[in-house]
Known about the structure:
The protein is an alpha/beta fold and about 1050 residues long. The protein is about 25% helix and about 30% strand. It contains 23 helices and 46 strands. The relative contact order is 0.08.
Amino acid sequence: MTDGPIYDHSAYAECKAYPEKALYNGGILRDHAANIELSLGHLGADSYTPAFLLDNLLEGIYAFSAWIAIMGADSSILTAALNAESTKFSCIGTVLAKQGCWSFLKGGFLLHSPSNLSLLYFQNADGKEINMSIASPSLQRFTHEQWKMNQQYKINAERKRFLTIHTSDLHGERLEGAAITIEQISRDFPIGSAIAETIIGNPPYQNWFAKRFNAAVFENELKWYATEPEPGKTNYTAADQMLEFVRANQIIVRGHNIFWEDPKYTPAWVACLRGHELQLAVKSRIRSLMSKYRGEFIHWDVSNEMLHFDFYEQRIGPNATLSFFKAAHEADPLATLFMNDYNVIETCNDFNSTVDSYISRLRELKQGGVSMDGIGLEGHFLIPNPPLIRAVLDKLGTLGLPVWLTEVDISHKIDKEAQAVYLEQVLREGFSHPAVKGIMMWTALHPKGCYQMCLTDNEFHNLPAGDVVDKLLEEWKTGKVEGETDEFGTFSIHGFLGEYSIMDLPMISLPAGVLLYDYTAYTECKARPELPLYNGGILKDDVHFSTRSLGGSQSNISSPTFILPNLTGDNTVYTFSTWVKISGADSALIKAGLSSENVKHNCIGTAIAKGSCWSFLKGGFVLDSPPRLSLLYFQNADQIDVTIEIASASLQPFTAEEWKTHQQYKIDTERKRTVTIHVSDQNGDRLQGADIMLEQISKDFPFGSAIAKTILGDSSYQNWFVERFNAAVFEDELKWYNTETKPGQVNYTIPDQMLEFVRAHQIMARGHNIFWENPKFTPSWIFNLTGAELESAIDRRIRSLLGKYKGEFINWDVNNENLHYHFYEERLGPNATLNFFESAHQVDPLATLFMNEFNVVETCDDANSTVDTYIARMQELEQAGASMGGIGLQSHFVVPNPPLIRGVLDKLATLGLPIWLTEVDIDHEFDKETQAAYLEVVLREGFSHPSVKGIMLWTALHPNGCYEMCLTDNDLQNLPAGDVVDRLLKEWETGVVTGNSDEHGEYSFSGFLGEFKVNVSCGNRTATSTFALGQGDETRHFNIQL
C-alpha cells in the first residue's frame, strides 16, 4: 500500500439503538455538522433536508457514509445527493431509515473536476413528511491511485496465496539449485459470460470462449418461454447441446432462470392460467427443469427480478416465491439458490431495488424457511459509480452469503471506447471485493450483435471491451514462473488461487537441508498399500529383509524381519511405517518390535491387520547409542497362528536437531500467526516512525493442570496457579464416588467452591468425569443395583451433574477408561456407553464430549488400548449416533517414545476431532531430573502437533505430594518439572514486542495466538487498543489511528 487511507469495508444492515463512530473519523466532515436545513422548492414538500455545504472539493473518488434516524413515520427510503458546480448526483446512497433506531447509509461519488462549492443533502423518496436526524457522517477522498492501490491490496489478500515448494531427493534430502517451472492451469475464481445457441456447431466461437472463461450462463435457452412455448410441450434440445459444450470444456454453468416475474417474459399461455391450473403448471415447470438438470448447474436464479415484478405473487399469493425456493431446493439440494435483480449496484435511483430493499426481501424469504444461498446482482450499467458499487457490496457482504455479478454489461448508449473504460471499472470493483465470488458478463454473441455490449465482432476480433477482458484475465492469473530452489530446497511464489502444474525437476546431489516429517497416516483398511513414506528411507531397497523364527517363544513369532546393520545412535529418532496384511484369521493385532545387542523395544508400533485388505502401522523408536546389528520384526499379539505380509515399509532417521527443528517449524506455523499493524492519523494518512509496543495478555492454546480441593483457601497456591495456567481440571471432586457417597445424598460443595476460583480468574475447566468404568472407582452402593434401579441412578447422575453445571465445563469425559473396563456395559448391555453420550448431549448440548483413555500414546504394549482399538471404539459409537466431540489421551508416561507419540497422534488426527492430552505426568519411579527431561519431551510433542488442541498436567498438589509427579514442593518452590513448565510457558508466549512503523506506516511481527494489547505513540499522540489473533494462514491486519 502507498501512503493514503485504507478503504474501510465496514457496513451495517441492522437498525441500531445508537449510531457507530464515523468511518475515517469523519474524513473531511469531521468538523462539519449537518446544521443547514435546506428548502429545495422544486423537489416538493419533502425537500427540507439536512445538508452539508462543502468548500473546494478536489477531483477524486469520495466514499460517503452516515447514520440516519427519522420521526413522523415508521420507515422511509432516504437518499443522499450532491450538487457540485459542474455536475449533479441525484443519488449517492440510500437507506431505509426507521423511527426509534439508527440506520446506516453508505455510498459515494466520483468528481472529474474540482468544485469550489458543493451541497450534500438528503431527501425523502417516499413523499412522507418526516424529520431526519444525521449522525457520524463521513466523507473520505481517495485519489484514483489510492483507490486502485486499495483494490490491488484486496486482490493480493483475497485472490492470491503464498506457495512454497519443498524439493528433495529420493532419500528425503533437500535439493539446492533445482530448476523449477510452475504454471497455473486453472483458476478458482469464476469469470465467464452468457452464451446463446449461436455457439452450437460454431468451433471458432467455442474455441474463443473456452480459451478465456471457466464459467458460463445460458442467455435465454433455459427460460420457461424457450423450453415450453406451448403447455406440456417441453423442448430442451438447445440447452442440452449447450450443456454438452460446457461439460466437454470443464466450464461451470449457472442456471438462469426458473421463473421470471416480469409478465413480458412469461409464456403467453401461462398468463391465461389462474388458481389451481397455474399452481399445477408451476410445479410441473420445477419438476421438469430441475429433475432433468439435477447436479448440472451450480446455481439457479429461482424467481428473477422479484423486486420489480410480481406476476406469480399477484396470481398465487404472497407466498408464491417462498414455495418456488422450497420446491427448487427439494428438487436439487446441492444447487445454490439465488435471488437475482437489477439496479441494486447499478444505481441508487431505483427505489424498488435499493440495497436495503434487497436485504429486507432476502431476510423475509429466509425467515419463511427458504434455502437462500446466494446474492445475484445483474450489473447492467449505464455509468458506473465505483464508491456506490463498493458500498452496496459492503452492505450485502454483512449477510455472509456469496455475491455474484451475474449479467455485467455497459449500455449500448455509450460508445465502444467508453464501454471498455466503464467495464474495467466494474470488473475491478467486483474482483477486488472480498464478498464477490464470481463474475458473469452478459455478452452472448448473435449475428446482429449482443444485448447491450459485445466483446468481439462476428469474426472474433476484439472490440475495446474485449481488449479489457483479455488484459484483466492475463493480469489475474499466475503466468509461467521459473526459478531455482534455495539452500533449504525451497522455492516460493505468490499466486492466484487455482490449480498449478510443476514441471519435472532434475535430481541433483547436494548437501541435505532440514528433512520434513511426514504426517501422513491412514485409518481405513485399503485394497492396495500406498507408496512408502520417505520413499522407504533406509529400507527403500528391502535388501535386509528376511523371515526369521525367534526361538524361545510361541509359534506365532515367525515373523517378517529386517536385519539392520550399523544404525546410528546419539538420540537418533527413527520413524517407522508399513502396510500389514494377514492370512489365517479375519483380523489380528500385529506389533512391530526392535532388538539389538544393547536395547530392546518390545513395541514400536501396532496395527489391527485384516485378511482382506492392508492396514497401516506407524510408530518408531529412539537410539541413544549405535548398535552394530538390529532386528526389526513383527509379532502377532493375539496368539493366533497367522501369516504376516508387509508392504511399503519405511524407516527414516532424524537427528535430534532435525527432530527439534521440525517441532519448531510446526509451532511457528500452527501456534503463531503474522500480524501487521497499520498506523495512521485521523485523516487516514500513514504514519512513519510511530513507537509501537505490543504485549500478549492471554493465550488461545489451553495449557493447564489438575487441581484438588487443597487449592481452596490457599491464596499462595491459587496465585501460583493463576500466574501460569489458563485451564484446569478437578482431580477427583466431580467423580461420582465424591459427589454422591450415599444414594440420593448429592453434595457439590467442594466443586462449587473450586468452580468459583476458576470462574474468578477466567480459567476454562474440563469436566472429569461423568462415569468411570473401573469398578475400583465406582461408588460402593452402585454395586447393589441392577436393571431399572441402576438405569435410574445413572439417569439421575447425568441430569444432576450436567444440569447443575450446564455451560460451565468446556469438555466432559463421559465414560472414563472404557477400553480397559466395562463395569456398566457388563450390567446394562453393550449400548450403555452410547446411552451415556446421548443423555449427556441432551442435557448440555454445547459441551464437547470426550472419550478418555490411558496407554494410547504412552506405549503400544497395552493390547486393550492400541490406537486402532481406540479408533474402532470411537467410530462404533459415532456410527450409532453418539455426539463424539473429542479425543482424550491421559498420557501417564513411563519412558516417552517421541516417534510413537507422533505416529499415534497422526493416526488419530485422521478422524478430524480435537485431541487433548488430558492427564500428563511422568512415573514417580524416576528421579526428579529425569521426570523433568521426559516431561519436556512429551510437552514439546503435544504442543507441536497440529491436531492437539489442549494439554493438561496431572499435578494437583496435596500435603503428601502428587499422583505421580509434582511441579513444586509444598512451599511452591519449583522442582525440576516445574522449571520445565515455566520455561516452556515463557517460550510459548509472545513477550513484550517493541518497534517502529515503517515508511508505509506498518509494523509486522509473528505472535502466538491469543489476545494482544497494543500501544502506539507518535509525538504527543497516543492510542491503546486490543486485538485477537486467531488461527489462520493469512497475515492478520490491524488498523490503529492516532
